[in-house]
């Protein structure tokens, strides 16, 4: 009788150890997956709230970030001796924004119509939606200046 109890105890203990090891592995995998998802597993899109508020309130000279879809490519324009790339970005149903990006202060962005894009820069209001400029790195500006994120690459 004693040997049956020892065998039963040993088998029960092994089962608990296996179960505990399995639970530990599952927990470690869950922690890893949550950590990867929360720490840059994908680029989070910036919120459009500040930009939409600036448009609705007619504010200008405001530093904003946001995201949208490239609706139209517009030809380059020269401003103060610098070439600027221009695109219309549909932010939402109420706002189409011209994004103006200096190709002399940063690289040209390979935009295509329908591309998702995120951005940060200085917003200038107008009744048609406004213009976003200063999308290049500038340590003298809030947040070190602006940027454009397109197809996994940040242009600043």
TrEMBL record:
Residues passing through the membrane, by range: 26-45
Protein keywords: Membrane, Transmembrane, Transmembrane helix
InterPro entries assigned: DUF3465
Claim: Membrane is one of the keywords in the record: yes
Bias (Basic and acidic residues): 147-156
Pfam families associated with the record: DUF3465
Region (Disordered): 136-156
Protein name: DUF3465 domain-containing protein
Provenance organism: Wenzhouxiangella sediminis
């Amino acid at each position: 009788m004693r040997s049956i109890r020892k065998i039963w105890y040993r088998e029960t203990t092994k089962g608990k150890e296996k179960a505990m090891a399995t639970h530990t592995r599952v927990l470690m995998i869950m922690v890893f997956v949550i950590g990867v998802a929360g720490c840059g597993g994908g680029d989070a899109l910036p919120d459009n709230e500040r930009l939409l508020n600036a448009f609705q309130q007619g504010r200008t000279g405001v530093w904003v970030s946001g995201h949208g879809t490239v609706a139209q490519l517009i030809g380059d324009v020269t401003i103060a001796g610098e070439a600027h790339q221009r695109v219309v970005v549909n932010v939402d149903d109420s706002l189409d924004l011209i994004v103006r990006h200096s190709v002399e202060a940063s690289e040209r962005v390979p935009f295509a119509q329908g591309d998702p894009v995120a951005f940060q820069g200085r917003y200038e209001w107008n009744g048609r939606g406004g213009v976003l400029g200063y999308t290049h790195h500038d340590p003298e500006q809030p947040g070190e200046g602006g940027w454009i994120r397109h197809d996994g690459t940040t242009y600043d």
